[in-house]
Amino acid sequence: LMSFGWKVLEIENGNDIEEIFNTLNKSKDMTGNKKPIIILMKTIMGNGVDFMMHTHEWHGKAPNDDQLAIALNQNPETLGDY
């Protein structure tokens, strides 16, 4: 990406909302220089839900009601999710 003139910003913990906001604000400060900006986020699939973390099994698959209750109890509500 650097060879094409892109400015690359990386987010080491793409599951950290504060790090995301900080990087987005940094990218806003970099606009106007006529160069594209890309943000690469390193995330953990199923972050915070013990039976969903580090597996592709849940990509595109909805949990049943019992699994949903467990998952919602393992993560705090953020930004009025539900």
Characterization of this structure:
This protein has two helices and two strands; from the N terminus they run βαβα. With 82 residues, the chain is α+β, with helices and mostly antiparallel strands. It has a two-stranded parallel ribbon. It is elongated and about 50 Å long. The model has no long low-confidence stretch (mean pLDDT 87).
Outline of this structure?
The chain is an alpha+beta fold. It has helices at residues 17-29, 65-74, and strands at residues 7-11, 37-41. It is elongated and about 50 Å long.
Approximate strand percentage: 5-15%
Poorly predicted regions are none
Order of helices and strands: EHEH
Distance between the termini: 37 Å
Average pLDDT, all residues:
87
Helical segment tally?
2
Main β-sheet description: 2 strands, parallel
- How helix-rich are the residues, as a percent range? 25-40%
Oligomer: single chain
What is the rounded Rg?
17 Å
Main structural class: alpha+beta
Q: Any idea what the shape is?
A: elongated
Order of the strands making up the biggest sheet: 1-2
The count of strands amounts to 2
Attribute tags:
82 residues, alpha+beta, two-stranded parallel ribbon, 2 helices, 2 strands, 12% strand, elongated
List the helices and strands and how they pair.
Elements: E1 7-11, H1 17-29, E2 37-41, H2 65-74
Parallel strand pairs: 1-2
